[in-house]
Design goal:
By secondary structure, this protein is mostly beta strands. Helix content is about 0%, strand content about 65%. The chain starts with a strand and ends in a 7-residue tail after the last strand.
Length: about 190
């Protein structure tokens, strides 16, 4: 286990992998800013967003970086099986699904965050409401309120949302079955996401 993050460096950004108990290892230095870096273990690829679009990069160096989707994007979610990547166009929030079978839009808005609940079920927040979208295109809108949501994560403990102004900044827990969102952690200042 560990985490992947981006940090500014001279001439660009460095994407780093850090294990929970050890030092970090640089994965790549990129000439522009980097958002939402994530590794897909099954394919051995690093995916991230920069000012030109969504990129994929083989970690073994056998191929050059590939622009998977050109344009302005925010949020990047990888399905648990590594077969689907979702991103949201910026500033519209229109969700784009990238798969080996092709790229297509899903009929949901993800400007408030994206996260996969299951390999074929995507959570998307428009900043006020949470919707479920199947990778085959089916949608269940408004399954739970998500006011001021700026980012989403699915963990073993459930669904977490990064929340910012005008709501109280912090991390909240979303329970779809109860249609509730409750604070887990309050922060002195925002924004998140």
């Amino acid at each position: 286990g560990g985490l992947v993050f981006a940090r500014p460096t001279t001439g660009g950004f460095e994407v780093v992998w850090r294990s929970l108990g050890a030092e970090g290892a640089p994965l790549v230095t990129w000439p522009r800013w980097v958002l939402f870096p994530q590794v897909i273990p099954s394919s051995g690829e690093l995916w991230f967003i920069d000012g030109n679009g969504v990129w994929r990069l083989p970690l073994d160096g056998h191929a050059a970086p590939q622009l998977a989707a050109a344009g302005s994007f925010r949020h990047l979610a990888i399905s648990p099986d590594g077969k689907s990547v979702a991103t949201a166009r910026w500033p519209s929030g229109q969700v784009l699904l990238l798969r080996s079978s092709g790229t297509r839009e899903l009929p949901v808005t993800g400007s408030g965050g994206l996260a996969f609940l299951e390999p074929d079920i995507l959570l998307a927040s428009d900043g006020t409401q949470l919707s479920l979208a199947a990778v085959d295109g089916g949608v269940r809108p408004g399954v739970s309120p998500s006011p001021c949501c700026r980012s989403l994560a699915v963990t073993r403990a459930g669904i977490a949302a990064g929340v910012s102004a005008p709501c109280e900044p912090g991390v909240a827990r979303i329970v779809i079955a109860e249609r509730t969102m409750s604070p887990l952690l309050r922060l002195p200042e925002g924004p998140l996401g």
